Recover the amino acids of this structure.
């Protein structure tokens, strides 16, 4: 409990410091409505992918296939949308086919999640190797289907998901907020959530207490896959296209967001609220660096440095706490 509040306090102080720093560096260009609207449209897809990564890290695992899963899911949706619905379609029939396309995309991402879960839970393959293999497999399938080309030209109703607002709030942000609520409820208020934390903290004790560890891992990777599919909905509707290599730079960022948000790389600890705060911090930094004209590749290198730094700090804190307990 003490760690939970200390992590939240650190993140809140960090957020305040980042906002203050970006204000000093960018002035009025930083604090304007257009800036925050742009951030609200960009943040949700990374947020959904980060939650897909987070839930697997809670079990001391990882899911390297989330981006590939989202892209293949988006490609399946795009193929259905472009092959069955005219771009100008707006009637109920078109809406029905859009729903079918979305459900088909979610089914694909769910199957990929179950494949990951089977490899990790039943074949006991290391999560990093299992999901790496799945990532390569799924990426290859996506390239084979599209031949590297972009699939574009969706009906207006689909494009509206990623580019319109409801009650003054971007629709992607509302989808992300729904995803945050659902995952928070699962982790904090259901037996499955308690078992995910227990499994990540001590898998042997979890098993001997009567928990079906493979079943929990299967459900965990299934949820991860579904969140990847939800990210695909936001991504393809915002870009009005699908491609095999969209969002490749997000993989590092999802790990960074999770770790910065307080998710333990060893499993068993982390909250969705911390992840959301970390996501906002990184989005503000990223947008601020863009305003300053900082090179994109240099920004990517900066994220790697931040990830290493956070891991080192977490290690030092854990060692310090261990020493205090032994005194």
């Amino acid at each position: 409990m003490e760690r939970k509040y200390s992590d939240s306090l650190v993140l809140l102080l960090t957020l305040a410091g980042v906002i203050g720093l970006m204000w000093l560096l960018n002035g009025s260009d930083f604090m304007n409505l257009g800036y925050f609207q742009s951030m609200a449209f960009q943040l949700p897809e990374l947020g959904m992918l980060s939650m897909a990564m987070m839930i697997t890290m809670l079990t001391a695992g990882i899911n390297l296939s989330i981006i590939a899963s989202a892209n293949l899911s988006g490609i399946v949706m795009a193929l259905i949308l472009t092959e069955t619905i005219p771009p100008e379609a707006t009637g109920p029939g078109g809406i029905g086919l859009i729903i079918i396309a979305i459900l088909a995309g979610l089914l694909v991402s769910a199957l990929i999640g179950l494949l990951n879960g089977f490899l990790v839970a039943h074949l006991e393959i290391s999560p990093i190797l299992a999901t790496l293999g799945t990532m390569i497999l799924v990426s290859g399938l996506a390239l084979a289907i599209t031949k590297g080309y972009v699939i574009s030209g969706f009906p207006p109703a689909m494009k509206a998901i990623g580019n319109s607002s409801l009650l003054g709030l971007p629709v992607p942000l509302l989808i992300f907020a729904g995803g945050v609520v659902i995952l928070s409820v699962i982790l904090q208020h259901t037996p499955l959530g308690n078992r995910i934390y227990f499994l990540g903290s001590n898998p042997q004790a979890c098993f001997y207490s009567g928990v079906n560890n493979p079943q929990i891992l299967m459900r965990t990777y299934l949820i991860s896959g579904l969140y990847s599919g939800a990210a695909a909905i936001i991504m393809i509707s915002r870009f009005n296209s699908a491609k095999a290599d969209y969002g490749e730079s997000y993989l590092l960022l999802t790990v960074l967001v999770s770790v910065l948000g307080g998710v333990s790389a060893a499993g068993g600890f982390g909250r969705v609220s911390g992840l959301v705060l970390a996501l906002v911090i990184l989005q503000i930094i990223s947008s601020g660096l863009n305003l300053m004209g900082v090179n994109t590749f240099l920004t990517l290198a900066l994220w790697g440095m931040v990830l290493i730094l956070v891991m080192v700090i977490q290690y030092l804190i854990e060692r310090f706490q261990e020493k205090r307990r032994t005194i």
